[in-house]
Amino acid sequence: MVPELVERLLGVTKGMAGVIEGPLRDGSHGLRRASGIGQTDEEIAQSVRGIDSREIDRNRINSYDYRELYLEAKRFDDSDAAMAADIEPGRTVSEGDPALARILSSQGFDGPPLLVDAAGMRRAIDSGWEEMFRGVHGEQRVADFKIGPLRTGRDETGRGNGIWVWGRAPSWSEYGSPELRETSAELRDLAEDCTGQGRNPRGVIRMAMHPDALVTDLDSLAAKQRAELRSIDVELGKEPEGSARRTELEARSYVLQDVGRFGAASGYDGYWVNGTPAWVFLNRTVFVVER
């Protein structure tokens, strides 16, 4: 399982239009425009101050019915194998986080990636798209990722439910220098480790991330998550037991305990797991994927 590999790696890992047979998608969710093109004066001013306007425009934290999401999140959490005997028949979730799925759908993040051939993938990478790999169990899941329903992974390490992939550390990170960046072969090998017993190379998906996807790192995202949860706790302290508002706040806190759900509700395409070659993605449409 990917999170288990991350646990091992945390202790040792330190150290475009017209390029693909027609235009690559600009990103269907407002990926950053060229500086000064189509931007308002306020957006340009925010950029100068280090603020990406998409972090404001995409944030839907206050837009959800958390009581509904709570029921889906609880159904997912109760489907853990260790608790399966205590679950009512029909309530289990075989795979994928249904609460996260609802958030991704509301954000438009659950659409398919753009499929390209090997030559198209090479042109994308040469044009600045970041090469990544994902390993899954079985060829059907490979096909599903490319053209089927989006199935997110279960996290058991506190680093978030989502689409776990292997990729190089971002250039702005402490591990982003060329001498520390993994080779394609090394990333593919990590992905193949996730394909089940026997290491099935057909379970490896090669992809590339849009060069201007809205990404962050886990440490930064978790800090924002903690601030949100503290804010909820403050409000809870003001609400009497049994009030409708208290029920809503408790549901909101429960749903946002998962950093992947929090990141998706905040509008991020994905985030890097600090100090490792692992990423968690929430928006499948920021990828080109090799057929």
Please outline the helices and strands:
Blueprint: H1 2-10, H2 41-48, H3 54-57, H4 66-77, H5 98-107, E1 114-116, H6 118-126, E2 130-135, H7 139-147, E3 163-167, H8 184-192, E4 204-209, E5 215-217, H9 218-236, H10 244-255, H11 259-266, E6 270-272, E7 278-281, E8 287-290
Parallel strand pairs: 1-8, 5-6
Antiparallel strand pairs: 2-3, 2-4, 3-7, 4-8, 6-7
Largest β sheet strand count, sense and barrel closure: 8 strands, mixed
Task: Please state roughly what percent of the residues sit in beta strands, choosing from under 5%, 5-15%, 15-25%, 25-35%, 35-45% or over 45%.
Answer: 5-15%
Helix vs. strand class: alpha+beta
- Spatial strand arrangement across the major sheet: 1-8-4-2-3-7-6-5
Helical content stands at 25-40%
Global mean pLDDT:
81
Distance between the termini: 24 Å
Total count of helical runs of at least 4 residues: 11
CA-based gyration radius: 20 Å
In terms of quaternary structure, the protein is single chain
- Globular, elongated, flat, extended or rod-shaped: what is the shape? globular
Number of self-contained structural domains: 1
Low-confidence stretches: 8-39, 82-93
The counted number of beta strands is 8
The succession of helices and strands, N to C, reads HHHHHEHEHEHEEHHHEEE
